[in-house]
Amino acid sequence: MSSNKPLTTLMLLGALGLQGCASERSETALDQAIASFQSVKDDSNVLRSAPRDVIRAGESLARADRLATYMGTGSDVRQYAYLSQRYSEIAREHTNLVLNQERQAKLELERQRLQLALREAKLVSVQQQGKWLEEQIVSLATQQSDRGLVMTLGDVLFDTGHAELKNSASRTVLKLVQFLQLNPKRVVRIEGYTDSTGSPEDNLTLSKARAQSVADMLVDLGVDEKRIQVEGYGDQYPVEANASERGRAQNRRVEIVFSDEKGRLGAAR
């Protein structure tokens, strides 16, 4: 009998070790479920878009917590923790889908509004409109350089780190469209720039995406894409030092370079 004691002791220790591992896995699963639920519970967009999934995530989490507290099996705790976390993920995925749909609807309404404004503007005398637009474009241009007449669209037209044009860009872009329609031989080069925040690769990508957003809106409003060139220069060619927020804001910009009346563009940078 005494020879079996070491074996019995080892088996007991092994069982306790397995039980400890299972308990640790349950605690980890429960912690992950709690973090996921907290994230969606505190997000007003998720509560608005997927309230039922948030409720189900909370109910499953409460069940997992009760089982963990009152000595339920580890597998049951992990099962309900998994269900809670999955409901939280579904709520987040559903919310992203809804927000994307809302954004697309908003963009479509804005496009329709701009097209309506464009049609209304065409009712004005072409001669008067052409003179007025010429003055507007010149007044918006920041400089006359060897690259040609340059108009700067400032950082306020984009949210930080994003390439989508804000509604405040509409009036400026509309003037640009009308000007190009009344001057069919002119072409433009749209150049995107960023500040020095972020990596050079990310800045280059963002700068070109912002320039492309302006180009896409011009095309949507009837400008032939063959009249548009797009360039992204990242954090190159700053107009101010990046040492201050004001300087960085000046460097986050899109520049529109106009050709002459015969369609000749100045050399690119």
Q: How many DSSP-defined strands?
A: 5
Distance between the termini: 91 Å
* Helix vs. strand class: alpha+beta
> In CATH, what is the homologous superfamily of the largest domain?
OmpA-like domain
Q: What do we call the CATH topology of the largest domain? A: 60s Ribosomal Protein L30, Chain: A
Q: CATH top level of the largest domain? A: Alpha Beta
**What is the CATH architecture term of the largest domain?**
2-Layer Sandwich
Shape: elongated
What does this structure look like?
The chain is of the alpha+beta class and 269 residues long. It folds into two domains: 2-100; 124-258, 60s Ribosomal Protein L30, Chain: A, CATH 3.30.1330.60. 62% of the residues lie in helices and 10% in strands. It contains eight helices and five strands; from the N terminus they run αααααββαβαβαβ. The protein has a five-stranded mixed β-sheet with strand order 1-2-5-3-4. β1 and β2 form a beta hairpin. α1 (5-41) runs parallel beside α4 and α3 (51-69) runs antiparallel to α4. The chain is elongated. Mean pLDDT is 82; it is low at 9-20.
